[in-house]
Amino acid sequence: MFVFRRFFLLLVLCVGTLLESRVWTTTSGSRSEGELFEVVGDRIGLRIRGRDYHFSISRFTPADQAYVKQWMKVPRCAACSGTLGTRSTKAGKASYHTSCFRCMVCRKNFGPGNRFRKDGWGGMVHVEHFSHTGLCGTCSRIFPKQNASKEQFFADGRMSCKPCLKDGIFKLDLLNKVDDRVWKSLMEVGFVKPKGKIILELVDQKTLLREAAKINASGNLRGLTLTKYRVVKGGKNPGTTFDHRIYVLYGLPYVECISVLAHEHVHVWLNERFIDASPPVIEGFCNLASLTVLQKEKSKLSSILLENMNNSTSSVYGGGYRKMRQRLAQVGWPALLAELKRKSTPP
Ligand SMILES: [Zn+2]
Ligand SMILES: [Zn+2]
Ligand SMILES: [Zn+2]
Ligand SMILES: [Zn+2]
Predict the structure, then answer these.
(1) CA of 3 to the centre of ligand 3 (A)
(2) Shared domain check, 312 and 287
(3) Which residues surround the ion ligand 4 when the cut-off is CB under 5 Å?
(4) Average pLDDT over residues 118-132
(5) DSSP structure class, residue 248
(6) Structural domain of residue 283, as residue ranges?
(7) Is residue 310 part of a domain?
(8) How much distance in Å is there from the Cα of 144 to the middle of ligand 2?
(9) Distance from the CA of 103 to the center of ligand 2, in angstroms?
(10) Which pTM value belongs to this model?
C-alpha cells in the first residue's frame, strides 16, 4: 500500500510540468530570463517575472529561434504548455494533460459530452458552472469567484482578473504619467498637442454613460471626450478657444489605459479642427492611435486588445478601423492626417 502511494505521488509530480526558464537574447544584445509558453504565428509568448509578453520571433538570436523551433516540435498541453506524456486527453484539435483538462470551479475532469467554455489564457469551466466565475472586462480571462478577492469586483459592476487588477490605473497621478507616454507615441506619427486645455478624469461606468448620453454616444465605452468651444469674432482676441474633458474608466490596466487615452486624444485633435466625417471614419481613425500605442507594448494583453479591434463586429469601431488601417497602410501617417484635415468645416 505504501509503495503504491509513493508511486502515485511521483506520477502527479511528472504531470505537473514546469516550463523551462532560460535566458533570451535579442539581436541587439539585450538579455532577459523567461519561459516560453506559446507560439502564435510569428510571435512568441514569454513569461518574464510572472508577466506574459508577446515578442516578434525575429527579434531574437538564431540560437533562440532554433530553440523555439525545437519547442514547437514537442506535443504540448493546450492549457499549461507543458510537454505531454502518456496521461493526456484530446479534445477537438487540442491535447491536454489529463490533470489540466478540468473545470476551474468544480475541479472535475471534463468527460465525454461535457460542454465547457475556454478563455485565451488556458482557463476552462463547465458551461453549467460559468455563473460561478468572473470574466475580466479587459482580457476576457475567466476566474473562479471562490478564489477571487473583493477588489476584483468593482463597485460599478465591472470585474477584473488578478493580473489586470495588478496593473490597474486607479489614481490620477498615474493616469497623467500614462498620458505622457501616450503623447510621445502620438507625436511620433505627427499629432500635435491641442490649443485647448485637457482635463483628465477617472470615472466609474455610470458617470461615463451619463456623460456619453449627452453626446448620444453609447456602447461598450471605456473613455469619452467632451469638447467645448467658443468662437470670438472681432474684439481684441478673435478666434476659437477650446476646453476638453477626457473621461477614462478607473481601474483599467495600464495597457488598456494607453489604448483608450490614445483614442480619446485623437478625438481632441479632430474636434479642434472641426473635422466632420461618418462615425466609422472618425472612430476608425481614433482606433489607429490605439493601434500605434498598442504595437509598441510587448505584453500579451496588448496583442489581445489588438486582436479584439481586428475582430470587432461593430461596423463603426471594427469595420471603420479596418478600413482606416488599410488606408494608413496605403498612404502613411502624414498623408492620412492631411486627408482628414481636408474634412475640416470650422463654424
Ligand atoms: Zn497541462
Ligand atoms: Zn465544473
Ligand atoms: Zn484581465
Ligand atoms: Zn471614440
Answers:
(1) 43
(2) yes
(3) 283, 286
(4) 93
(5) E
(6) 172-341
(7) yes
(8) 10
(9) 4
(10) 0.86
